[in-house]
């Protein structure tokens, strides 16, 4: 019987892992099942563009994995039993059994329990959330206020994209620190110039403690007008892993070793935002596409090595830069150390915008061409364990 590998989630990391496994393992020995809630690959790094009315390329997963041998199941994951090695699909879609599990369910927005955020704020961590914000902005008349809560990469990209697409709106950003305070001095200065040119008001060193239907309340007792609130102040991992007997962090990330295997259940590999992994410097990796994709490379390589007896690879689990789009015409590429500390060098302006666009296109290309760009040798599994596949 074939060894059954189940991959949960077809974002950047899950789709990458599934494609690499299909490329490197012999079809006579393994069955690969990829489970995803949506039928299309979602370019999550472009959700701020989708929210402002830009059309993104349609990439059906059935077309992406056609001819690869990967079986696609469109379903939400309801539960995982890592002791019985089963995955329960929601809405009566059945149950899967596995021999090896790659857990890549990723993250979603987190309101941190701030009152009113769930009821009144919009999120752009998902395609559905971005489309809801898009509809909201389409109905928003000139002169209204849009307030983005959160001064990280997502917040900066959302605020600049909205301000560029809708110059008739009053856009504001609320951040707990200074604008771009983790970047180099020249990069910070560039951010301030772009924000000023776009007319974005920045509320620095300010924390939002309540979200209302027309304003957000800050920790100083003041309020900031917000006909529309966009929440980008944090992400939380999918809750399925924390409900299992997997060893997880308090936030629900699966604790993994340097091969991306669970430290408590070695037949489970976790990748991307779902994994608590340490980089080459020994520091935990942050939730990002930059660190997520290499964890998928590492996990896929480790699975292949374990099944075939090959030498496991060591993917580069380190950082090089942070790429930030500032609308369609401006950008910022901040170069960083291996452990993500900003260096003095950065690219700014139109050059950085083109660089960021090429990075996004390259990441999507790698996903939608899952069997290209890596060795094509399909290795035979040394000892094929019987797969227990349920309909």
TrEMBL record:
Record InterPro entries: FAD/NAD-bd_sf, FAD/NAD-binding_dom, NADH-Q_oxidoreductase
Keyword Zinc appears in the UniProt entry: no
GO molecular function terms noted in the UniProt entry: NAD(P)H dehydrogenase (quinone) activity
Cofactor(s) for this UniProt protein: FAD
Record-annotated FAD/NAD(P)-binding domain positions: 4-300
GO biological process, one term: aerobic electron transport chain
Top-rank taxon, per record: Bacteria
Keyword line: FAD, Flavoprotein, Oxidoreductase
Keyword Oxidoreductase: yes
Family per similarity comment: Belongs to the NADH dehydrogenase family.
This protein's name: Oxidoreductase
Organism field: Auraticoccus cholistanensis
């Amino acid at each position: 019987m074939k060894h059954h590998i189940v991959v949960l989630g077809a974002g950047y990391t899950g789709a990458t892992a599934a494609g690499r496994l299909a490329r490197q393992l012999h079809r006579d020995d393994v069955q690969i099942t990829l489970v995803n809630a949506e039928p299309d690959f979602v370019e999550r790094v472009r959700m701020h563009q989708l929210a402002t009315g830009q059309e993104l390329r349609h990439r059906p997963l059935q077309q992406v994995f056609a001819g690869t041998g990967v079986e696609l199941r469109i379903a939400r994951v309801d539960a995982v039993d890592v002791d019985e090695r089963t995955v329960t699909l929601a809405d009566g879609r059945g149950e899967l059994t596995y021999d090896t599990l790659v857990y890549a369910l990723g993250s979603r927005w987190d309101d941190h329990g701030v009152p009113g955020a769930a009821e009144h704020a919009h999120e752009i961590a998902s395609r559905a959330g971005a489309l809801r914000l898009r509809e909201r902005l389409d109905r928003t008349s000139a002169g209204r206020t849009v307030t983005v809560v959160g001064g990280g990469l997502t917040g900066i990209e959302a605020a600049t994209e909205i301000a560029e697409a809708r110059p008739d709106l009053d856009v504001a950003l609320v951040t707990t620190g200074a604008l771009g305070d983790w970047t180099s001095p020249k990069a910070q200065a560039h951010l301030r110039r772009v924000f000023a040119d776009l007319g974005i008001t920045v509320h620095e060193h300010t924390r939002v403690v309540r979200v209302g239907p027309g304003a957000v309340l800050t920790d100083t007792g003041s309020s900031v007008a917000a006909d529309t609130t966009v929440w980008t102040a944090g992400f939380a991992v999918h809750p399925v892993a924390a409900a299992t007997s997997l060893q997880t962090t308090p936030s629900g990330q699966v604790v993994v070793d340097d091969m991306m295997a669970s430290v408590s259940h070695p037949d489970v590999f976790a990748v991307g935002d779902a994994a608590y992994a340490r980089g080459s410097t020994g520091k935990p990796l942050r939730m990002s596409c930059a660190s997520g994709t290499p964890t998928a490379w590492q996990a896929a390589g480790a699975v292949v090595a374990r099944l075939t007896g090959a030498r496991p690879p060591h993917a580069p689990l380190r950082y090089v830069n942070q790429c930030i789009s500032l609308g369609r015409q401006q950008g910022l590429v901040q170069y960083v150390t291996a452990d993500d500390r900003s260096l003095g060098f950065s690219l700014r302006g139109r050059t950085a915008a083109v660089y960021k666009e090429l990075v996004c296109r390259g990441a999507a290309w790698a996903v939608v061409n899952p069997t290209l760009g890596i060795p094509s040798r399909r290795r035979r599994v040394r000892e094929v364990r019987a797969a227990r596949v349920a309909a």
